[in-house]
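Quarterly update, task 2.4: iron/sulfur cluster-bound model.
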Amino acid sequence: MAEVRVAKSAGFCYGVERAVKLAEETAREKGGCAMLGSIIHNVHVVAELEALGARQVDSVEEVRPGETVIIRSHGEGRAVYDQLRARGVEILDATCPNVTRIHQIVAQAEQAGRQPVIVGTPDHPEVTAIAGWCSHPVVVSGAEELEKWLVQDEKRRNLPLTFVSQTTSTRKIWDDCVKKAKKECTNAEFFDTICGATSKRQEEAHRLAQQCSLMVVIGDGKSSNTKRLAEICKEVCPDVRLIERAADLEPSALSQANVVGITAGASTPAWIIKEVYDKMSEENM
Ligand code: SF4
């Protein structure tokens, strides 16, 4: 009989939990609301919110005047807030405090005459929102791109540069950029804005996977964070299954395992983790 262990950090991070809760409460109290962009990468949670009357809109133009709109944990650029105010809508801001801090850092850096450099995936919504708090942002996906940007103009090495990171960037990407900038730039400052919740989840998954012959990672297969979590587990565990719901788990999965670990991405609610745990426990009997 296999022992099933669940990682303590599995599931919602506090930023996502806060945004989902705000959407739920607002939809209940007001009989509906709009969520700007995808509030969470989980179709099951989105369906639950829609059933309560929280509808997803993909642009400011789709928000109806007088409607209440929720800003997701990734945040939005300054212009989006201005556009929403101009439409006369009520804004409920669920931007994660970790992300708001980055907005403040880049905005203050520009005010002080510095050049913000955002280390992250250029088209990720969190990164485009951070860039939306700068008038002339520079976004680099890693040290190689930083190098390309620096060599384009010799003067850039002497600019006052302020580096921030996308909250879900890996430690290696950030450290490589810091190393390069420290070596080549004369006036750079660094704000390590990688989210502690993400690194804690990854470290814990790695530790747990080392002790397991089967590791189950629950989350949306399209989410880069969930895929990263599975990759980390694969480094130390011979059998890693990435699933969205309990039904995706093959009944035979447990038969060869003696210790099974469960972890889950930041967009997985507690009820899905329980569903998987219960199914495993049943099959295990
Ligand atoms: Fe906030 Fe971290 Fe969650 Fe992003 S991953 S929403 S920064 S707690």
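Highlight for this quarter: The radius of gyration is 21 Å.
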